[in-house]
C-alpha cells in the first residue's frame, strides 16, 4: 500500500506525479566481494587514448570524439562523444549510457541540454547487446559494465572534470546498465534511471518490443518449452540483473522516471526495480515507452534539478571535511 494514494491520483488524473523517497529507507546493503569480482577490473592498467578529435564547436561547448581501447576485447574499442564545456573551473560530468538499440539521438538530446547548462557530458556508444546473445548474456553485461568503468577512469584523468561530481543517466536498457554500474562502481555520485526495470527474464517474456518478442517466440518454437519453462530457463541465464544489484545502490542518490502504461519495459518490472532500490524519489509519467517522448523536456528538467541537488550536496560535504 506504499504510495497508494499518489499512484491512484496519478491513474485518475493522467498527470505527471512526483513522489519523494520513502521515509522507511535505511540505506544500501554492503556489496559482497564476489559481486565486485564478477566485473573485470584493470583500473591499474595505463589508460591509452586511441583517438581524441574535436568535430564541432558550439556556443557553450566543444564536441569531441574519443576512442579508448576496450579493456575486455582486444579487437574492440570504447567510443564516446565528449561535450567539453567552456570554463576554467572543474565541472560536473554526466555520463549517458546507450539505449537497447544503440541509437544515440535520444542520449544526445539530453547531453546537449546538460552541456548548455554548463556541465560536461559523455554519450557512450555500444555495439554489444546482452539480449541478442542469450547463450552468454552475463558475459555481455559484465563486458559493458567494465567498459563503462573504463570511461570513468578517463573522466578521473581529465583536469577540467570533477571526479567528485559524476552523474550517470540512462533510459530503458541504458538505465538498467546504469543501475548495475552504480551498484558496482563507487565513483558514481548520482543516478537518473528512466524507464528501467528489474528481472530481465520477466521483461523478455512480457515485452512487446519486436526484436525481443520475436526472439522469445523463436526460442519457444525451437525448444518446445512452455512459456513458464522458458522463463525459468532465462532466469538461470541472467544471474547479473538490475533487480539483484539494486539493493547495493544508495537510494538517496537515485531518481527514477517511470512510465505507467509501458509495454516495452512493463510497469510491473519497473515497480520491482523501484522496490528493490528502496523506493527512491520517482517521477511517474502517464505514458508508454515511446510516447514518453512528449515529456522529455520535463524529464531533462527533473534530471538536471536532481543532479544539481546531489552535486551541491557533494560540494557542501567536501567543504565541511
Fold and architecture overview:
The structure is a single chain. The chain has 321 residues and is α/β, with parallel strands linked by helices. Helices cover 41% and strands 21% of the residues. It has eleven helices and ten strands. Strand 2 and strand 3 form a beta hairpin. 41% of the residues are buried. The N terminus and C terminus are likely disordered.
What is the element layout, followed by pairings?
Layout: H1 4-13, E1 17-19, H2 33-37, E2 51-57, E3 61-69, E4 77-85, E5 91-97, H3 105-116, E6 120-124, H4 137-157, E7 161-171, H5 173-184, E8 190-194, H6 200-206, H7 210-223, H8 227-237, H9 242-245, E9 254-259, H10 267-277, E10 281-285, H11 296-320
Parallel strand pairs: 5-6, 5-7, 7-8, 8-9, 9-10
Antiparallel strand pairs: 1-10, 2-3, 3-4, 4-6
Adjacency order of strands in the biggest sheet: 1-10-9-8-7-5-6-4-3-2
For CATH, the homologous superfamily is named as: Alpha/Beta hydrolase fold, catalytic domain
> What do we call the CATH topology?
Rossmann fold
Low-confidence stretches: 1-13, 316-321
Count of DSSP-assigned helices: 11
Shape: globular
CATH architecture: 3-Layer(aba) Sandwich
What is the count of distinct domains? 1
- N- to C-terminal separation? 40 Å
| Annotation, overall tally of beta strands | 10
Largest sheet: 10 strands, mixed
| Radius of gyration, whole Å | 19 Å
Structural class: alpha/beta
- Let me know the average pLDDT: 89
> What is the element string, with H for helices and E for strands?
HEHEEEEHEHEHEHHHHEHEH
Proportion in helices: 40-55%
Amino acid at each position: 500500500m506504499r504510495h497508494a494514494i499518489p499512484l491512484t491520483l496519478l491513474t485518475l488524473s493522467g498527470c505527471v506525479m512526483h513522489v519523494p523517497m520513502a521515509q522507511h529507507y535505511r540505506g544500501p546493503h554492503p556489496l559482497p566481494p564476489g559481486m565486485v569480482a564478477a566485473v573485470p577490473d584493470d583500473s591499474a592498467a595505463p589508460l591509452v587514448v586511441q583517438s581524441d578529435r574535436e568535430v564541432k564547436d558550439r556556443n557553450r561547448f566543444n564536441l569531441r570524439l574519443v576512442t579508448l581501447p576496450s579493456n575486455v576485447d582486444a579487437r574492440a574499442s570504447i567510443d564516446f562523444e565528449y561535450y567539453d564545456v567552456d570554463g576554467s573551473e572543474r565541472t560536473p560530468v554526466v555520463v549517458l549510457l546507450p539505449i537497447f538499440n544503440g541509437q544515440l539521438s535520444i542520449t544526445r538530446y539530453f547531453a546537449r541540454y546538460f552541456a548548455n547548462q554548463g556541465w560536461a557530458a559523455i554519450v557512450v556508444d555500444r555495439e554489444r547487446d546482452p539480449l541478442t546473445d542469450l547463450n552468454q548474456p552475463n558475459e555481455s553485461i559484465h563486458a559493458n559494465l567494465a567498459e563503462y568503468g573504463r570511461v570513468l577512469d578517463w573522466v578521473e584523468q581529465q583536469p577540467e572534470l570533477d571526479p567528485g561530481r559524476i552523474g550517470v543517466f540512462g533510459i530503458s536498457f541504458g538505465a538498467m546498465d546504469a543501475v548495475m554500474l552504480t551498484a558496482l562502481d563507487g565513483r558514481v555520485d548520482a543516478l537518473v534511471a528512466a524507464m528501467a526495470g528489474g528481472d530481465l527474464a520477466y521483461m523478455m517474456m512480457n515485452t512487446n518490443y519486436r526484436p525481443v518478442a520475436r526472439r522469445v517466440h523463436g526460442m519457444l518454437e525451437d525448444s518446445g518449452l512452455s512459456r513458464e519453462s522458458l522463463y525459468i530457463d532465462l532466469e538461470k541465464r541472467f544471474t547479473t540483473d538490475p533487480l539483484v544489484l539494486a539493493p547495493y545502490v544508495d537510494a538517496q542518490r537515485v531518481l527514477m522516471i517511470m512510465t505507467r502504461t509501458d509495454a516495452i519495459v512493463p510497469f510491473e518490472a519497473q515497480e520491482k526495480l523501484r522496490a528493490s532500490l528502496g523506493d527512491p524519489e520517482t517521477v511517474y509519467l502517464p505514458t508508454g515507452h515511446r510516447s514518453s517522448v512528449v515529456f522529455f523536456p520535463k524529464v531533462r528538467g527533473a534530471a538536471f534539478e536532481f543532479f544539481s541537488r546531489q552535486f551541491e550536496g557533494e560540494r557542501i560535504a567536501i567543504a565541511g571535511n
